[in-house]
Specification:
Elements (H helix, E strand, L loop, with lengths): L2 H7 L8 H25 L4 H18 L7 E2 L5 H32 L11 H18 L1 H5 L9 H11 L5 H19 L8 H16 L7 H5 L16 H4 L3 H26 L5 H14 L9 E2 L1 H9 L5 H18 L8 H16 L1 H10 L2 H16 L2 H23 L1 E4 L13 E7 L7 H8 L6 E8 L5 H16 L3 E5 L3 H10 L1 H5 L4 E2 L2 H12 L1
Parallel strand pairs: 4-5, 5-6, 6-7
Antiparallel strand pairs: 1-2, 3-4
Helix pairs in contact: 2-3, 2-9, 2-14, 2-15, 2-16, 3-13, 3-15, 4-12, 4-13, 5-16, 5-17, 5-18, 5-19, 8-9, 8-16, 12-13, 12-14, 17-18, 18-19, 20-21
Protein name: SulP family inorganic anion transporter
Pfam family, one: Sulfate_transp
Subcellular location: Membrane
Amino acid sequence: MFAAREAWKAGLWAPRHWAGNIVAGLIVGVVALPLAMAFAIASGVKPEQGLYTAIVAGVVVSLFGGSRTQIAGPTGAFIVILSGIVAEHGVAGLQLATLMAGLMLCAFGLARLGGVIRYIPLPVILGFTAGIGIIIWVGQWQAFFGLPAVPGQFFHEKLWFLLRNLPNLDWVTTAFGFGSLALVLLPRRVSVLRRVPGPLLALVAATLLQGLCQFPQLATIGSTFGELPRGLPMPQWPDSGLDRIVPLIGPAFTIALLGAIESLLSAVVSDNMAGTRHDSNAELFGQGLANVISPLFGGIAATGAIARTATSIRSGGTAPLAGVVHALVLVLVLLVLAPLARNIPLATLAAILFVVAWNMSEAHRVVRLVRHAPRADAVILGLTLLLTVFADLVVAVNIGIVLSVLHFLRRMAASVDVAPVAIPDAVPENGPRIRALRVRGPLFFAAVEPLRAAFRAEPADVLILCLDQAPFADATALQALDDEIAAAHVRGMRVILCGADARIRAKLNRMGTLSRLGGRDFQPDLAAALDAVGRAAG
């Protein structure tokens, strides 16, 4: 169910809803202006490419996504990945990787994988987002303090270079940086300015000051990138030879994975704020379509933007119209105000990204989880964060998920119990020696050892195994059960299974276990099993 159609069915395209959504679109468009340029520059591309991305993704995701309040565009989460791709494959490689990631996201949506993303554990999400926030923060020191170009490939190399050169900072650039940072944060402290976007306030003030004073040592968009072009470029298909596609499969998958996580998290936030319910599969398809079209117009990777989506909802946005208007505002900026952007200081954009990095890191949630969550979760969070910063985002997410799964399996295996069951007094004392056991918990590969130990714990003539509290069983555990039954028969011990539900019984039948037991040794419950033992003894 695409957002545009969902909004139509809900009557949100009616004229009575126009005013609130147009106002929301105007406000979020103003908010998106500095962010789009800042994210583009930090990703290693030109500032106008961030605007192209926000325009294309803003329209496509608003109309064809799965959330009618989602606002999409370039985000801080992508900076680390995109800048790495640009450094290794160039801007053309980035655009091809973005297009490939868009196709992957479309495939995710068509394959209905939207619900799978929710299974990524919170410590992993907090770990890699906090790690990305740290990388963004340190990555903006050069522009914020006016330092030389940073060499080195790894984070620790760049950090050490910046620390060694920090005494050589440019005071004018640093003053602009701290002044801009204060203006970004000012509306949070002054009630009169509460409705003014802090990034826009800093952008306008710093640009006017540089336009009047023209400090020669201050790096600006004009001195670094030239003037912004007016309007959108003509669509152009990127070079997509096989020799270029193969090396970009890994980076494209990284973009797709992070885009899926980020967009669905944003959709959940918008649902909680607006009282709506998104379609996760349609959301993935819409995000994929946006990332296919964006690079055709010179854009970069895009995803749902939590801050801009929240701003739109707080400003009255209830329908895709808000996202479309936000894109039109940015088109208007390109057509009318592009020449004024040449005086925007890079230190101001760095200050904006400082705040983005802090918000992205969610330090309060990280601290709370480390202090109050189980120790294993805190370790997984810390390890994911460190691997994100010092190794690679994909490595960090993969290892974090694997460790989380292993920890979960250990906890699940510990919860599986094969416990003795009391035999009723009605069983004659001179009959066969009977042991009854009950499996409590899922029979899966990590619970095989308790099952084997229970079979061999005490000698008996008859072993009754109750499966009425086993919710499911996998092939490994069923094979182990079959092996133990065969070994028990060799030792002369009769085994009776009872209480298994229809699914487990079907699996036992396919494994050949029921044939090995015979019809009398598979019973519906413990009473029937004991009755079968009594009849055999009689």
